[in-house]
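pasting input
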Amino acid sequence: MSGSDRVVLLPGKVHPRVRERVEAEFEAISIGAADAGLINEETRGRVRGIAAMTGITADFIDALPNLEIIANFGVGYDAVDTHHAAKRGIMVTNTPDVLSDEVADTTVGLLLNTLREFPKAEAYLRAGRWVTDGAYPLTPLTLRNRTVGIFGLGRIGLAIARRLEAFGLPIHYHTRTERKDVDYPWHTSLIGLAAAVDTLIVVVPGGAATEKAVNADVLEALGPQGVLISVGRGSTIDEPALAAALADRRIAAAGLDVFADEPNVPQALMDLPNVSLLPHVASASVSTRNAMADLVVDNLAAWLDGRPALTPVPECTGIDRAAR
Ligand code: NAP
Ligand code: 8YV
């Protein structure tokens, strides 16, 4: 296969290592956004792969008649219309496993920041207030004696559970299917899980099935000592309900790395003292993002060379290139 047969589209913002490798290993076409109007018909017909760090709609997929693979940068692929891609026999890949430990480490950090107020304590020191006002106030919340519930005990959820088990905390979880390989109590419903724990960690994928799953009722069940940590997708949380529960102290605190409309964070959350906010950085170290970038490009290389994709998403595992 000649290099010119391997045409890969880079729409919108792309990780630098993805760009560097795609430009070196394929014929790369960069456009400002995933908008078919930005490329002419002849070029649209040549595109066989997309390296995606942005939303990919059904319309965009349909505008590329010879598209074979969408390699998504991220384990979460809710921004790609995977259902449509699979229907058209187009492979979608994601970046599982290589980021699980990093995201789990960040989740534990965010949980501790939320409970023990470390970012606020550091700001206090830097403002000279240790000298002028004395010791930082004791934190009302602690990790000690908490019971953790994990909503989504998948690759990352399990990595979080193992860490918090080492902190001496009991772990419960809710998924649609009970896991046979763990001894943690399984709850058949999210609200049942929330009622059984005081620390709820949300790490389910985004999408219709989890849209606003953490609603006012779930927060009510979590209770006034409750702490919510969200590292999956912002769409899974009813943000106005969360802001109201935090303001009224119907739950104690929250730590959020993801938001429904990134990079916009609701002012109602920004204004609250009992919420710790991060700008979607759970996987954001140079080494982990480079590993994700390599997996994106390795998936493109495998598929466009006629080999199986390395990490197909579950909806695409059955895609047979010969049937195309
Ligand atoms: P995974 O291995 O596929 O785990 C997903 C878990 O969620 C599974 O336990 C699954 O169990 C459960 N689940 C899915 N849909 C559910 C539903 N409707 N109700 C209840 N449970 C449900 O995925 P992962 O690798 O752990 O990644 C999880 C998510 O984390 C990603 O999709 C992404 O959105 C997010 N993420 C965020 C960051 C960040 O930077 N903040 C970084 C990486 C990943 P069942 O199928 O049995 O229900
Ligand atoms: C990345 C993520 O921040 O993997 C995911 O699902 O949310 C994160 O690792 C994101 O994919 C970067 O676009």
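fyi The chain has two domains: 3-96+287-323, 100-277.
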